[in-house]
Amino acid sequence: MATTELVSEHYEHVRTVFGILHGEKTADLLLRNVNILDVHSESVFQGSILVYGQRIIALNPDESIVHAREIFDGEGMYAIPGLIDTHLHFDAQLAHPAAFGEAIVPSGTTTIFAETLDFASAAGEEAVEAAQALFKGYEQLPYRLYAFAPGKKTSVEVTDAMLKMEPVIGLGELAHLSYMTGNDDDFRKSALGRANGGWVNSHWGVTALSDMQLNYMPAIGAHNNHDVWNEEDIEKSVRYGLQTQIKFGVGSPEVIKTMLRAIVKRRWPSENFQLCADNISVDRVLTKGHIDWVISLAVEMGMNPIQAIKMGTLYSARSFAMDHEFGSLAPGRFADIVLTDSLSKINPRYVFKGGTLVAKDRKLLAPVDLDYSGMVQRPQPGLADLAPGQLDLTPIELSADGSQAKVLLFDVYGRGHLKFAQEVWVPFRDGAVVPEVDGFALNRISVVQRYADGERHIVNGLFKGVAVERGAVSTFWPAPAAYFVVVGTDSAEMHDNLRQLDTYVGGCLVTEDRQIRAELALDIYGVMADMSLSELVDATRSIDAALDKLGHRNEGEPVVNKLLTLFISLDRFGFMV
């Protein structure tokens, strides 16, 4: 039974709303002169929106009697619901929650459903306390945050503790392949997610599993699937009853177009789909947009504009049974509103969260004053005994005539596919591997374990994704295991680069002739920068600028973000121990 205090609170609210609508009390905001998108009837009507206590309390109220503390003229723009990202690794975007909000909110995103597994894994024994610090003050963020406890990369105990926190609402994505082998930790985490009445995120990898194996995740109650890459994947995901999240993250620049074209071509009902980023850089958001960009792209691909908007609003909210809270502009919902001058090409001119104007013309109006410096760690170097020769590229196998060598080839754009790593034949001359494939010169790559108990685990190969003529670039990622990746042309230069990055908690480093040319420090457990958005963007762009001088011509996502996506597949396909 509800407590007396709670009943009294609700009593005051319903009386106040009644009084406002009868002109006896004052609302917080009257948003006038807008063309309101009704996602329920798929129609647009001219009118106004009345807001009180962060929620919409009336459409087209009688303006001759209502009073509001603030009146905002919408200038005839379209009012659409705040946009929603249904699956986002917000702990893997390098920005802390406040800086991340400074990037996404001006693009119209007012709600995210976020994974926390990399952050919790990186924090190790401090995972529970670190998560509490990460979520501290989350209500002050300019977007709504719903988080998931780690379904992988952490212990069962950490998952259990985080399921009890706010704003955690369920279990995050489970281990990509281990749940198919009968792993007891996966069983226990799934049970905890189900017992807590929360959602269970899926990461089932339909490109890698047999049809029989596809049954398992939806059979145990997995709710959604963001791991689709093509038309066949989408069809299977929908058929097996999963909420299917169309993603556009780092490393897959053409995949989003492929998937949107498939939806249009097959005329699949858009109610089957939601939109998500999965992994995305803040630089990418600032230059192209977030969910707003995908909606506009869907229209470009031939989708009806209102249907495209519904994938990023109503259908996303409905997939988590939260459409009574947001996802549409109707009484009782949060007043999360985006004003745009077009429905076919979303241009967020004004963004409101709970009736408060938080962004204008793609700029956050008031950055949130949240301090994350307490999570900054001290470096713990681990490469003191690393030797340059350990990074040399040696053949897996030599051809019978000794003219060719078999080596590993890694492809940054192979993420999510079995083509991420392949064995290829390359020339072998004068006792050394010639780093070229089909006549094209490639850089070398080394995957290096940071902390070794005995023999250090190192994997050397060739790499498609970064092409420098000299110098080296390295990155570090601590989840689920602490590893470096370094790319270059010379073992000595690559080795020196790694030894310098080893003096940081984590980050990315570009060197030439043993001199640092650009750096990005990730001091918050090795996964986040204790920086403002502008500082972070400047740092990532400095990495690209330095690499440009070394011969690399980058397109799309910043190099640091591209390299960090490697760790997903390195873990997935067993290249880390």
Automatic annotation (TrEMBL):
Q: Name one GO molecular function term.
A: adenine deaminase activity
E.C. numbers: 3.5.4.2
Adenine deaminase C-terminal domain location is: 423-557
The record's SUPFAM superfamilies line, in alphabetical order, gives: Composite domain of metallo-dependent hydrolases, Metallo-dependent hydrolases
Q: What class of enzyme is it?
A: hydrolase
Which UniProt keywords are present, listed alphabetically? Hydrolase
Q: Organism's domain of life?
A: Bacteria
* Pfam families per UniProt: Adenine_deam_C, Amidohydro_1
Does the keyword field hold Kinase? Answer: no
Record's catalysed reaction(s): adenine + H2O + H(+) = hypoxanthine + NH4(+)
The Amidohydrolase-related domain covers 297-358
User: Sorted alphabetically, which InterPro entries does this protein's record hold?
Assistant: Adenine_deam_C, Amidohydro-rel, DNase_TatD-rel_CS, Metal-dep_hydrolase_composite, Metal_Hydrolase
- Can you tell me where the transmembrane regions are? none
Q: Entry's Gene3D superfamilies?
A: Metal-dependent hydrolases, Urease, subunit C, domain 1
Q: Which family does it belong to?
A: Belongs to the metallo-dependent hydrolases superfamily. Adenine deaminase family.
Protein name, as recorded: adenine deaminase
Native organism is Streptomyces coryli
